[in-house]
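Morning F.,

Quick status update on the modeling queue. The single chain you submitted on Monday has been processed. Sequence for confirmation:
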Amino acid sequence: MTANDFTDLGCLMECEVIRFGFDGDVFSLLVVGDNEEHEDEDEHEEEDHDDCCSGLNGHLFRITFHDVKDYFFQGEECDNYKTIKAEDTKTHLFLELEGTNFNEEDNDVTLSFSYGSFDVADLGEIESPDA
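Structure tokens below.
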């Protein structure tokens, strides 16, 4: 996955959400896209797939939305998220996330907002969840 794959935000269904933040009229979303080049190498390591962090290897991306309006958040912040639903109309994003916590109860999260534009920064490959 590359930053160019984010021209259609429907690809968020293929990503794991790590963090998000809203400040003024800017919303930032950190996501990890699977690194397809290494998937074949890791197929034999079945024990890694049972780990709660196994999906976090890949590329880290920051998606920054500008001119955000009508921000809606429901749920509790979690340690990481699985994307359940992602709908984008080119001016409005809706995300339904299944949150996972390491030391607390898991929570579902819903995010929704309108935006004017967005940009994507490729923050590089993650080699392990501890990186």
